[in-house]
Queue: 2 jobs
Job 1
Amino acid sequence: MIPELIWFMAAAEEASGGPDIGKLLGSFVQYGMVGVFALLMVLGVVVPKWAMTALTAEKDNWRTAFEQERAAHQVTREQLAKAEERGDVATEQGKTMTRLLQELGHQSHVSGSV
């Protein structure tokens, strides 16, 4: 995005021909260290301390939210595994009870649709 911005600014300076990026960079460099510093800020190489502090805080907030979400999903996975085990146990108990009742001579009645 930044190189495109420089290209656009150079093209705006010289509308008659192709863009002169060297001329644009030279306009920054002619002011010495201040020009180089301004160029580095435009390119995003140098950022103010307040911006870096804000970015670091935002990164930490996102990391904390990610860790909390991952922990919540782990709890959900554990609960689903327990529920699946309970469902398997209930199914086996039902099958065992059905076999036991059939061995005792009880006839199963399947209810049809009404």
Job 2
Amino acid sequence: MKKFYIAALSVLILLGVFYWFYASFPPKELSTSNNVDIEKENEETNAAEYGSVGYGLEDLNGKVIDGGSVLNSKDNEVTVVASVDNDIDEDRKYVLLIFEDYKQVKFKAKNKEQE
């Protein structure tokens, strides 16, 4: 019976030590103040020197297609204009991937089938 009390007391002491460590180091909270730090870092590193890459989709009328836009299909086809803007002073090639229901599908670009 004495061994039981020693084991129980040891477990309680161990739990107390874990609680003390947990209470002395509060978890970091996520906040929007990190945005200020990121902006300062961009200013310090002068991120504009490194260039950027932008991309977008437009319908045939020139209206920007975003996450809330509705894509209407005719004969099970959707026609859009995809553009990539490369401001990096380097020769690069890009690949366009099309997904439908999280599966990559074939598509046509300039009437050529792409895989």
